TrEMBL record:
Keyword hit for Transmembrane: yes
Localization, UniProt: Cell membrane
GO MF entries: electron transfer activity
Main location: membrane
Keywords annotated in UniProt: Cell membrane, Membrane, Transmembrane, Transmembrane helix
Organism (species): Geobacter hydrogenophilus
Regions crossing the membrane: 12-33, 53-72, 114-141, 161-180
Topology within the bilayer: Multi-pass membrane protein
Residues in Cytochrome b561 bacterial/Ni-hydrogenase domain copies: 14-190
Gene3D superfamilies attached to this UniProt entry: Transmembrane di-heme cytochromes, Chain C
Protein name as it appears in the record: Cytochrome b561 bacterial/Ni-hydrogenase domain-containing protein
Length: 214
């Protein structure tokens, strides 16, 4: 029976899954860039707040789609298959971190080890912002100062101005490092073909070569 690693490496991402990823990335970055504009919600004219609100609802829609994929989508995309909550997966995360401390880059398929932890944290960040932003979308009254629970939720939501760039720097940095080493994952996420070349350690071709199975 194929292991989780082999299964994930052999199954390509569907067009729908890639589209969801693109939606998360584009709306997430747009929401972050327009976050500072939302401070005009206290004014009678609140174009920035309106713009940020609707972009945020777009992001929330893609978060919902990703959650649905993670719960009932294809097997290799389900949270139960890659979120690092088991002893074995946490051990992989530890190995990757220790390897980085020795200046050795992790060589695992998508979603495994440290990459899985980073993506899990990113989804949690976006989920927090989607829930708090959705609450503010329906409760915050433009032209009035936020108080009580609404103010508390607004303060939580504003942490996204720091959390999103932290996640993007980790995720984007990993993509850049992989590209420099010849694994152009970013091309797949833009519906482009990955250049043909030597297989990346851990992918299906390497697994077949190591096992001797054609």
């Amino acid at each position: 029976m194929a292991t989780t690693k082999e299964y994930a490496a052999e199954v390509p991402l569907s067009v729908f899954a890639i589209a969801v990823h693109l939606g998360l990335a584009s709306f997430g970055i747009a929401a972050w860039l327009t976050g500072s504009l939302a401070d005009d919600y206290k004014k009678a004219e609140h174009t920035g707040f309106t713009l940020h609100s609707w972009i945020g609802m777009g992001l929330a829609s893609f978060i919902l789609l990703r959650v649905l994929l993670g719960m009932w989508g294809p097997r290799h995309l389900r949270f139960t298959q890659w979120v690092p909550y088991t002893k074995e997966r946490l051990q992989c995360v530890r190995e990757d971190i220790m390897g980085l401390l020795r200046l050795r880059l992790p060589e695992r398929p998508l979603h495994e080890g440290l990459a899985g932890l980073v993506q899990t944290l990113g989804l949690l960040v976006f989920l927090l912002l989607a829930l708090s932003g959705g609450f503010l979308f329906f409760t915050l009254v433009p032209g009035q100062k936020a108080t009580g629970l609404i103010h508390a939720v607004k303060e939580v939501h504003e942490t996204g101005q720091f959390l999103i760039p932290i996640f993007l720097s980790m995720h984007g940095g990993a993509v850049i490092v992989h590209a420099l080493r010849g694994r152009h994952l970013w091309r797949k996420m833009l519906f482009l073909k990955e250049p043909q070349g030597a297989p990346f350690p851990g992918d299906a071709r390497v697994n077949q070569a190591e096992s001797g199975v054609p």
